[in-house]
Amino acid sequence: MLTALKEAGNQGLGKGMAAGFRLATARLGPAVTAEVPKAMPSGYAPILARSLQFRTEARAFKYVARVTWRVYGDGQKERRDVPQLNRGILRHPVYGRSRALKRHALHQATSRLNPWVAQRVRSGFVDRPVDRLGVDVRREMNKVIDAVAAKITRG
User: Fold this and answer.
1) Rounded distance, CA 72 to CA 12, Å?
2) What are phi and psi of 57, to 5 degrees?
3) What is the rounded distance in angstroms from the CA atom of residue 119 to the CA atom of residue 27?
4) How far apart are alpha carbons 153 and 135 in whole angstroms?
5) Dihedral through CA 69, CA 74, CA 80, CA 86, nearest 10?
6) What is the 3-state secondary structure (H, E, C) of the chain?
7) pLDDT at position 92, please?
8) How big is the CA angle at 22 (ends 86 and 33), to the nearest 5 degrees?
9) Gyration radius (Cα) of the chain, Å
10) Pairing mode, if any, of strands 89-93 and 99-100?
11) How are beta strands 116-120 and 89-93 bridged, if at all?
12) Whole-Å CA distances, 19 to 79, 87, 89, 116, 144
């Protein structure tokens, strides 16, 4: 595919193909965001839904085009563990609980951070929408590839 694009000249076909792939995957992001309240606890769902971001990467190789669609979310200090959340495990500190240190620790902190717990949540908040819309997305990507192939054959 890449050799055919090079032989056709620099007519912006590669950029057009990448833009078509991004357009084809555009429906996945809102579908995943809409799935978050069904899978996460009510206090965490709006926070996670606001922080989710989606990225589509399209790369063309000699005979193959590869499209990668990534889901990630930025937290206050680090990235949210979206793959683990998708597997159904939510790690969070226990709310309202901290451990007091010894009273004679004058020059140190007086309490330790909350202990962490792994809570089970409904798994597949990314997988379900991708599985549901995957056939349509593939069909749209095939249309993009066919359009680029038709432009190459026309010259």
Assistant:
1) 30
2) -115, 125
3) 30
4) 27
5) -30
6) CHHHHHHCCCCCHHHHHHHHHHHHCCCHHHHHHHHHHHHCCCCCHHHHHHHEEEEEEEEECCCCEEEEEEEEEECCCCECCHHHHHHCEEEEECCCCCEECCCCCCCCCCEECCCEEEEECCCCCCHHHHHHHHHHHHHHHHHHHHHHHHHHHHC
7) 87
8) 35
9) 23
10) unpaired
11) antiparallel
12) 27, 31, 34, 42, 9
CA distance 112 to 74: 25
Digit-coded pLDDT (tens) for 72-106: 999 988 899 999 999 999 998 887 766 666 665 55
* Backbone angles phi and psi of 36, in degrees to 5: -60, -50
Cα–Cα distance between 56 and 62 in angstroms, integer? 20
Residues sharing a CB contact under 8 Å with residue 123, sequence separation 6 or more, in sequence order:
39, 86, 87, 88
pLDDT tops 60 at residue 107: no
Q: Hey, what amino acid is at 83? A: P
pTM above 0.70, yes or no: yes
